[in-house]
Design brief:
The complex is a heterodimer.
Chain A lengths: L2 H29 L15 H11 L5 H13 L13 H36 L4 H15 L2 H15 L19 H5 L2 H18 L1 H15 L2 H8 L4 H13 L1 H14 L4 H6 L5 H10 L3 H29 L7
Helix pairs in contact in A: 1-15, 4-5, 4-8, 4-9, 4-11, 4-12, 4-15, 5-9, 6-8, 9-11, 9-12, 10-11, 12-15, 14-15
Chain B lengths: L1 E14 L2 E14 L3 E5 L6 H7 L8 E10 L2 E2 L5 H8 L4 E4 L3 H4 L6 H12 L5 H14 L16 H13 L5 E5 L7 H18 L2 E6 L2 H7 L2 E6 L2 E7 H6 L4 H8 L39 H5 L5 E3 L3 E3 L7 H8 L2 H9 L12
Parallel strand pairs in B: 3-8, 3-9, 6-7, 7-8
Antiparallel strand pairs in B: 1-2, 1-4, 4-5, 9-10, 10-12, 11-12
Helix pairs in contact in B: 4-5, 6-7, 10-12
Classes of the chains: A mainly alpha, B alpha/beta.
């Protein structure tokens, strides 16, 4: 099988998985008791008015009709209107989603870069004080609750040193008309980004660091590591170009799934730093039975996981020559 | 001219129970262009001895005493950096047992050859280095285009040849071949050995050939050293070791391998297991397995004794070799060892 055929088949698989995800989401949300009007009974003085609203939303139709309509909507690239805000979901959710993507991507990038290098060094220096101290530090970071790490960082950097703003996302004030670069590439935004990203990085660091250390220990037993030493290559070359390069393979999948899942946002980090991300909106919309918003949020998150997995599979083709197109 | 002189080398491994005496008082010499066969069972110290030359040993290895003189350089005192840059691969390369696992799987064989050439030789372009790899592939009977293949795309014998190309790419003065054919099937074994010795002659490098198979070294070596329990119990030119051995262990080793022309003789194995090397105590380390052990053997460590022309033996009864050789051919001689008590009455040397 050629590369092209492999990619095409993986894309078909991806589409199928997405369809399953959408269907599952649809069914799950309709199984939740109540409907978008339930929380706002006061808004509808008479049953007739409430009934009118339900009909307006199309919720009186048989389930399969609603399902078909929803699928049709998605195919047109629409998510419908929020039942709570009464405005298009896409306008509502995409800016939030972008905020989350920027935050989480920064946090994960820091966590995986430092984690991989640090874990590789821990594996290389097995049995040393550095390794023992490193494991304790990483496990402490991992076991600390996110909100606690966030609060400590705020206390330190905001109230003691006064270096960073306390919360929010900066001066653009939710101007959705600004383009991506203007919105995110400015000093004010980066200052607001620092603390929440650091919080995420600290909490996410443990997985890559510990996993990398473990696979390093396995790889270091391999004959080729000894051979590269026999070849007289400098230690740094053997460590990073050969041992770490081989150890990083299992991390690709983990990193991809972590990235995908993180795109759903971290409710806790977003709450501590008052970050306008998709995580908080997701929770709020679920409790409001705001189907379109909740489903769009979950759909974005699920899609991220699925797409990142696909990216990981493609990355393997490049990273590990032993992988065959199967 | 002498290339390598190992003098009184004691290379021990630290362990929780004390030092493991993996190489204990080793004396060896190797001439330029010659091949030395190191024969012995697993754990006899042969790999430790060979790897000491490039100090490619686990972290708990420690030189207690002795010196390793390689072409005028004292290896035991060399800095880590000088060792890497000047000795490893540049002067001394290695052919490992399992070639397939000894290449990094994520780089092509060519990339790995280019890397080592360019690290050790200044001013060599990638293309020049790769061309050298292609030329070596050609000489070793592999399609030169296969330098662009990944290790997993090679067969076992092919990978071993590629490894030989890697080992020879800097034309080292010494090649450490650590059981280079053990992982291959018998038909290919011979051809690979021939390839190695042929190429070795071409670039006139010396070789230390490590093996547990005495028949392998008898064909290819100029000199053979027999290792047992961390010591070299007998060494001489190959001819002498095969026809006129003096140490009972060498006698036993000869019996343990089949002679394909002689179907009448039974294979006789040496009874017992290799000695504990943590605290071997006084006495000959082979005594518990030796059919000819006398009281002296249990109490006094035999010292190297030179017989005619560089034939060095560590055995109290080496001068009775002619008689022992005959007895060693009898199966019964060795079976008696199994039945006797592990230590004779009255021998008090071992605790």
């Amino acid at each position: 099988m050629g590369l092209r055929e492999y990619v095409v088949r993986r894309i078909l698989q991806l589409v199928l998985t997405l369809w399953a995800l959408v269907t599952l989401l649809f069914v799950l949300f309709r199984m939740v008791p109540g409907d978008p009007t339930t929380r706002f009974v006061m808004e509808y003085p008479t049953d007739a008015e409430r009934q009118a609203r339900i009909e307006e939303l199309g919720l009186n139709e048989p389930l399969y009709v609603q399902y078909l309509e929803y699928m049709g909507q998605l195919l047109r690239g629409e998510f419908g209107d929020s039942t709570h805000y009464r405005e298009p979901v896409s306008q509502l959710i995409f800016p939030l989603f972008m905020n989350t993507v920027v935050l989480m991507f920064t946090a994960l990038l820091i966590a995986y870069t430092i984690g991989i290098l640090f874990g590789a060094a821990m594996g290389w220096l097995r049995g040393s004080r550095f390794e023992r101290g490193g494991i304790v530090a990483v496990l402490m970071a991992r076991s600390s609750p996110e909100f606690w790490v966030g609060i400590i960082l705020v206390w330190l950097f905001v109230f003691q040193f006064g270096l960073f703003p306390r919360s929010g996302i900066g001066g653009y004030g939710g101007e959705l008309t600004m383009n991506f670069v203007d919105r995110y590439v400015n000093f004010d935004f980066l200052r607001h980004l620092f603390l929440p990203a650091l919080t995420g990085a600290i909490v996410y660091l443990a997985t890559p660091a510990l996993l990398m250390r473990n696979t390093m220990l396995e790889v270091l037993k391999a004959d080729f590591v000894e051979m590269k030493k026999a070849e007289g290559l400098p230690e740094r070359t053997v460590l990073y170009k050969h041992a770490a390069r081989n150890s990083v393979l299992p991390l690709v999948t983990v990193a991809a799934i972590a990235t995908g899942a993180a795109m759903g946002g971290s409710v806790i980090i977003e709450t501590v730093f008052n970050w306008p991300g998709v995580g908080r909106e997701m929770v709020a919309s679920v409790s409001r039975n705001d189907y379109p918003v909740a489903m769009a949020a979950f759909l974005l998150m699920g899609t991220s996981v699925i797409v990142m997995n696909f990216v990981a599979d493609l990355a393997y083709l490049y990273l590990d020559p032993r992988v065959k197109y199967e | 001219m002498t290339l390598l002189t190992i003098d009184g080398l004691k290379m021990y491994y630290r362990s929780d129970d004390g030092y493991v005496r993996a190489a204990d008082d080793i004396n060896l010499e190797l001439e330029r262009g010659q091949t030395l066969g190191l024969v012995g069972e697993s754990g006899s110290g042969k790999t430790t001895i060979a790897r000491s030359v490039i100090r490619l040993l686990p972290d708990n290895a420690e030189v207690i005493d002795g010196s390793i003189d390689f072409d005028g350089t004292e290896i035991t005192e060399l800095s880590e950096r000088a060792l890497r840059k000047q000795i490893r691969w540049q002067e001394v390369s290695m052919i490992p047992q399992n070639a397939m696992n000894s290449f990094d799987p994520v780089y092509t064989v060519g990339q790995q050859i280019v890397q080592v050439i360019r690290y050790h030789e200044d001013g060599v372009s990638k293309k020049e280095a790769k061309d050298r790899g292609r030329r070596l592939f050609g000489e070793l009977g592999i399609d030169p285009d296969r330098v662009d293949d990944y290790p997993h795309q090679f067969s076992g014998g092919m990978a071993q040849r590629a490894m030989i190309a890697l080992a020879l790419c800097l034309e080292p003065k010494l090649i450490l071949a650590d059981e280079p054919t053990t992982a291959l099937d018998v038909v290919i074994q011979d051809r690979i050995l021939e390839t190695i010795t042929g190429m070795q002659e071409e670039i006139n490098s010396a070789m230390i050939l490590i093996t547990h198979d005495i028949s392998v070294v008898s064909e290819t070596s100029d000199r053979i050293a027999v290792c047992y329990g961390g010591r070299i119990v007998e060494q001489a030119d190959a001819e002498t070791i095969i026809t006129n051995p003096r140490h009972p262990y060498t006698l036993g080793l000869r019996n343990a391998f089949p002679d394909i022309g002689d179907t009448d003789t039974d294979l006789v194995s040496i009874p017992g297991t290799p000695p504990e090397l943590v605290d071997p105590g006084e006495g000959c380390r082979f005594a518990p397995r030796c059919p000819f052990a006398v009281d002296e053997c249990w109490d006094v460590t035999p010292q190297p004794e030179e017989f005619d022309d560089g034939h060095i033996v560590e055995c109290h009864r080496a001068d009775e070799a002619d008689e022992l050789r005959e007895r060693a051919e009898q199966k019964e001689t060795w079976e008696e060892v199994r039945e006797r008590p592990s230590q004779p009455q009255g021998a008090g040397g071992r605790r």
